[in-house]
Every structure is written in C-alpha cells, then in structure tokens.
Amino acid sequence: MILDNRGLEPPQPMIRTLAALENLKEGEVLTIINDRRPMFLYEQLEELGYQQRTEQQEDGSFKIEIFR
C-alpha cells in the first residue's frame, strides 16, 4: 500500500499514516511519501512495534517503508 502525504500540513500525514496502519496485515508493507522527515512518527511506530526504513528522494521528499 502506498500513501502519498505530500502537500498536507502536520499533523495530517501522521494521522493518515496511523489510520492506514490499522489495516496493515502481517507481512505487508506500508509505504508513505512525505514532504519532510516524520520525526514524531518514528516514536509512535516504535511504540506500536513497527520498523521503518527511510530514504530521502531526489525531489527532497521522504519515502518511508513501514513493516513489522
């Protein structure tokens, strides 16, 4: 599942991401694309037992893959 959060003001990207995680099944990956690095999201992911991989894109956005 890919969730494009570009153009949204905080906290919308985090709210959308956490809502999408509720539907994520074991073994699936949620990929989000944000305008900025989601620093506050990382703490939430850790508390919920998720791992993430963050990669800055050439256009300055960030692609974050979230998984268990």
TrEMBL record:
UniProt cross-references to Gene3D superfamilies, sorted A to Z: TusA-like domain (3.30.110.40)
This protein's name: DUF2249 domain-containing protein
Transmembrane segments: none
InterPro entries: DUF2249, TusA-like_sf
Limits of the DUF2249 domain: 3-67
Source species: Neobacillus sedimentimangrovi
Domain of life, per lineage: Bacteria
Annotated Pfam families: DUF2249 (PF10006)
